[in-house]
Design a protein that fits this description.
With 779 residues, the chain is α+β, with helices and mostly antiparallel strands. Helices cover 34% and strands 15% of the residues. The protein contains 22 helices and 26 strands. The longest helix has 23 residues. The N and C termini lie far apart (126 Å). 43% of the residues are buried.
Length: 779
């Protein structure tokens, strides 16, 4: 007996010492008062719509007062019925757990309370050891002394894992039911309340049967504890599972833009981006992005159809075994992914009166044969769509506006579209290809392509800076250039293989005369030209230092070209394109503001009025910028961009661009408020067999039609320092007072022609104008 007392005393002392030691090692619970839960970063549009969540964790932090009472009751009935009565540890449960241990020689479930689970989830591991359990118990007591019951429950509801990357009850409601917690039914609340026991094993996506069994168990406990009455219990038990997987609901489809922003965030903040729950306010405009998606996919599909049908992408034979043919084919269709706006399907009926296809969801698609006749464009005259569509053939289909479908095909070419605000550089839309899931390569920011005639306005700007005027005359005639270093000759040609002879600079740009562009660059200082290009933001190391530069032989991305054209739209300032406006923490604290310099236009920043916006650096003089802008307006009114006149606006300017052999097609255009650049080409460069006026320009038109709808015309105002002068359109000299075919041209005072054109009545040669006569001619 004496030894037993000694053993008991020693054991008691040991337990006291162990408890004392563990108590000294307990972490501070003060951090729970300022807890920052891991949550994905949310990328929002200008309008505040969700574009994407960046990060694998789904969590939506909530406060306890946002949680419906029945949902709290479901949690308590399942996890900790006496939560509001015990001091952090439920002694009844602890006794039951100890009895289980004595009888079965294993630790069982451990009788964890909600407070103990908070202790474990925030501070401890899930390893089942006695020392961890003791620490968990002691920490639970400590948490209860420092925090209210409601605060502890709030932490639990935000922290606990519910499966499928859903952390917290609010995220779980969205993941499994696509709704907020206040929209859940009693049965749905019970299902969620039962998931923390085994979130991966019994969630309704992985194990619907197990989830249903667990849900009904929770409902029975709620009924047992009188949280719900008999009628409510019976209705809830009878309710179907009605659960699935609901990804984050984005209202703006912009995967290329999202990845562009994600890379910038990771570069600046590292892996924290995935867990901090920040809100990134972007520059993306919903209307513009929707228009960009539709324009790029629509015109890329139209281009592909113009160049011929390539046939079915697959063929299914009827199963030889006793299988349901349609069900068998539907399953096989999952090998064909959805591509952009196209849906894969298999032909199940093809007659002279009807073509039906089955899609991956088991729906029957009614095929519009009349609009599918394009598949016969390069085949026999007696071809019809239904003769081309055999039973079992797999095609991609395109939806029509009247709920019908057209036989289509995945384009082999690709495209890019980007738009930005010229005053700020804010990117309002970005589409880097036909389908991000097929190719993550962002052709807006990563595709270095020859810009062709799209680059000419920058060369013309350099010429104007070096003393030429839009009235300067150049000879559009054949000539040969010899390179002594490579001992090769180069004969530049116009796209139409014709020549116009003596031509004014304005006309040369409007009609995109290649030979004159080369002559202009040949006549000015190349080093100064490269300096001008640097002012536009182009890196001159990747540009050729030869005359081929005049024809856009250098490599540029669509975003770089857009930045350059913004200079013409904003009056001569160089902006820096950006997609992130500012970033807020979950507490509303602004941790980042875009530092890009802006062109002030008398307007406050739409997001943060107190955020000062400095002036952007000037790239070219306002007078030079405006003269080029004025010429680019003529490109649309009279030149290669005339198709854009269909928009019936007088504030548009732009330039077509097609590289050698029609490999790259561009159109860059703008008004005072918006710049948009479109590109089309093959990723493995080869000829499009079309000029940009037939491919890139229609894409630009489709975008601008929607983006500018409802907006007033916005022209760049003419800056001081320019005068309109009557000139002779043939010689570029001052028009003779008696000349009837004179036109007006823009000049700075120092570049006004000093000679008067010949008298149209006498044919006398041009002569220098007297000072008094010059003043009279000008004013």
């Amino acid at each position: 007996m004496r030894w037993l007392k000694i053993a008991f005393l020693l054991s008691f002392i040991g337990v006291v010492l162990l408890v004392g030691y563990c108590t000294t090692q307990l972490p501070s619970v003060d951090s729970l008062l300022d807890v920052r839960l891991q949550a994905p970063t949310r990328l929002l549009s200008q309008e505040g719509a969700l574009i994407a969540e960046i990060g694998d964790t789904r969590r939506i932090p909530i406060t306890i007062d946002q949680v419906p009472k029945p949902l709290i009751e479901a949690i308590l009935a399942t996890e900790d019925r006496r939560f509001y009565q015990h001091p952090g540890v439920d002694m009844r449960g602890l006794v039951r757990s100890t009895a289980h241990l004595v009888r079965h020689r294993n630790k069982g479930q451990g009788a964890s309370t909600i407070t103990m689970q908070v202790a474990r989830n925030f501070f401890l591991t899930r390893q089942k050891t006695f020392s961890r359990k003791l620490t968990e118990v002691l920490l639970a007591f400590k948490i209860e002394r420092h925090l209210s019951k409601d605060k502890i429950l709030e932490l639990y509801l935000n922290k606990i894992y519910f499966g499928k990357s859903a952390y917290g009850i609010a995220a779980a409601a969205e993941v499994y039911f696509g709704c907020t917690i206040d929209e859940l039914s009693i049965a749905q609340m019970a299902l969620l309340a039962g998931l923390p026991q085994a979130p991966s094993a019994i969630n309704p996506v992985n194990n619907p049967k197990g989830a249903l069994t667990r849900r009904n168990h929770v409902l029975s406990r709620m009924h047992h504890y009188h949280f719900i009455d008999d009628a409510t219990y019976e209705r809830a038990i009878a309710e179907p599972l009605n659960a699935g997987y609901y990804p984050a609901q984005s209202t703006v489809h912009a995967p290329y833009f999202t990845e562009h922003v994600r890379q910038q965030l990771i570069q600046k903040y590292g892996e924290r981006v995935y867990t901090e729950g920040w809100i990134v306010y972007s520059t993306l405009n919903e209307k513009h992005q929707h228009a960009a998606n539709a324009a790029l996919q629509g015109k890329l599909l139209a281009y592909d159809k113009r160049h011929g049908f390539r046939g079915a992408v697959g063929h299914f034979e009827a199963p030889t075994e006793d299988h349901n043919t349609l069900a068998h084919w539907q399953e096989r269709l999952h090998a064909f992914p959805k591509m952009g706006s196209l849906t894969p399907g298999v032909i199940v009926a093809s007659t002279e009166t009807e073509i039906l296809a089955l899609d991956r969801q088991g729906a029957l698609l009614s095929i519009n044969e009349a609009e599918s006749q394009w598949v016969c464009a390069k085949t026999a005259k007696n071809c019809t769509a239904h003769t081309m569509a055999n039973i079992g053939d797999v095609f991609y289909f395109e939806a029509t506006k009247n709920n019908q479908w057209i036989i289509s095909q995945v384009p082999q070419a690709n495209a890019a579209l980007v738009s930005l605000v010229p005053d700020t550089g804010a990117i309002s839309s970005m589409v880097g290809g036909f389908d991000f899931n097929v190719s993550h390569f962002n052709r807006v920011t990563q595709a270095l392509r020859q810009s062709g005639s799209n680059f000419k306005p920058f060369i013309y700007t350099a010429a104007l800076e070096q003393g030429y005027t839009t009235a300067s005359i150049f000879n559009d005639a054949p000539f040969t250039l010899y390179d002594p270093e490579s001992q090769t000759t180069w004969i530049p040609r116009n796209d139409d293989r014709t020549f116009t002879g003596l031509t004014r600079m304005r006309t040369a740009l409007v009609r995109s005369r290649n030979i004159i562009s080369v002559r202009i660059l040949d006549s000015i200082n190349l080093d100064k030209t490269l300096q001008t290009l640097e002012q536009f933001g182009f890196g001159t190391k990747k540009l050729p230092h030869t005359l081929s530069l005049a024809l856009g032989a250098g490599l540029s991305t669509p975003l770089e070209i857009a930045r350059g054209y913004a200079v013409f739209a904003n009056g001569g300032y160089r902006i820096t394109p950006f997609g992130i406006h500012h970033i807020e923490t979950t507490r509303g604290e602004i941790i980042y503001k875009n530092p890009t310099e802006y062109v002030l236009n008398g307007q406050d920043d739409p997001f943060i009025s107190s955020y000062p916006l400095p002036h952007a650096p000037r790239a070219v003089p306002a007078t030079i910028s405006y003269i080029v802008y004025h010429m680019l307006k003529d490109v649309i009114q009279q030149g290669t961009g005339q198709r854009a006149k269909v928009l019936k606006r007088n504030d548009l300017a732009g330039k077509t661009g097609t590289s050698n052999d029609e490999v790259d097609a561009w159109f860059s255009g703008f008004n005072r408020e918006l710049v948009c650049v479109t590109w089309m080409g093959y990723d493995d460069p080869r000829s499009l067999k079309e000029f940009s006026a037939s491919s890139a320009l229609p894409m630009w038109i489709d975008f601008m039609r929607i983006a500018l709808a409802g907006t007033p015309e916005s022209n760049l105002p003419q800056p001081p320092g320019l005068i309109n002068v009557r000139i002779d359109p043939k010689t570029g000299l001052l028009a003779h007072p008696q000349q009837k075919n004179a036109i007006f041209e823009l000049f700075t005072p120092e570049t006004v022609p000093k000679k008067v054109a010949p008298n149209p009545n006498t044919g006398s040669s041009g002569r220098p104008a007297e000072d008094t006569e010059l003043i009279e001619l000008l004013y």
